[in-house]
């Protein structure tokens, strides 16, 4: 979908509509096969990982949000623009609010949120749900920790994509409880 990497010259390249066509064709096919209530999508229009950015990520995200809403899918999950690069969170002027308004359905966001800023964006009605992927990996009891405002384990990115069955996903400690 991003113009920095999509150099096609057929119906799947060039204009914004053409670059988004493949993803929307897939969504339509899946909706027709299993029903819209069982379909969701995650998009990262602002991400610039591995030099795969877009010259106008706001327009890309807005177009996809508007287009996806027409299919009535269960949710749209966006990665916050402050997460343009892996492991680096920056404040930025871009916003997901126009996309949230355009989608009108259940709107999720990810982007290195902690308890405080996650609660803030929900209370401000900027999103419906906040996704805490990395925090859940490092804190198997994350809801309890949030409830108690307890300290969190720090995640170790280097262990995310290894085949060791003991190190990484399964060795983070639970919050100790006292009777």
UniProtKB/TrEMBL annotation:
Keywords for the protein's UniProt record, in alphabetical order: Flavoprotein, FMN, NADP
Coiled-coil portions: none
Signal sequence region: none
Cofactor entry: FMN
Stored Pfam families: Oxidored_FMN (PF00724)
Location of the NADH:flavin oxidoreductase/NADH oxidase N-terminal domain: 3-151
SUPFAM superfamilies in UniProt: FMN-linked oxidoreductases
Family note: Belongs to the NADH:flavin oxidoreductase/NADH oxidase family.
Protein name: NADH:flavin oxidoreductase/NADH oxidase N-terminal domain-containing protein
Species this chain originates from: Solanum stoloniferum
Organism ancestry: Eukaryota, Viridiplantae, Streptophyta, Embryophyta, Tracheophyta
């Amino acid at each position: 979908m991003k113009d920095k990497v999509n150099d096609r010259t057929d119906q799947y390249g060039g204009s914004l509509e053409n670059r988004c066509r493949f993803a929307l064709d897939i969504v339509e096919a899946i909706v027709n096969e299993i029903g819209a209530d069982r379909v969701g999508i995650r998009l990262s229009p602002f991400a610039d990982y591995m030099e795969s950015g877009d010259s106008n990520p706001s327009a890309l995200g807005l177009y996809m949000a508007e287009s996806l809403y027409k299919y009535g899918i269960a949710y749209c999950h966006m990665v916050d623009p402050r997460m343009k690069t892996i492991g680096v969170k920056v404040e930025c002027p871009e916003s997901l609010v126009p996309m949230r308004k355009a989608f009108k359905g259940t709107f999720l966001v990810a982007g290195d949120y902690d308890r405080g800023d996650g609660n803030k964006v929900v209370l401000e009605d900027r999103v419906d749900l906040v996704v805490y992927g990395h925090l859940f990996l490092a804190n198997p009891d994350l809801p309890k920790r949030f409830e108690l405002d307890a300290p969190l384990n720090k995640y170790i990115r280097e262990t995310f994509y290894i085949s060791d069955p003991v190190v990484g996903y399964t060795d983070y400690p639970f919050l100790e409880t006292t009777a």
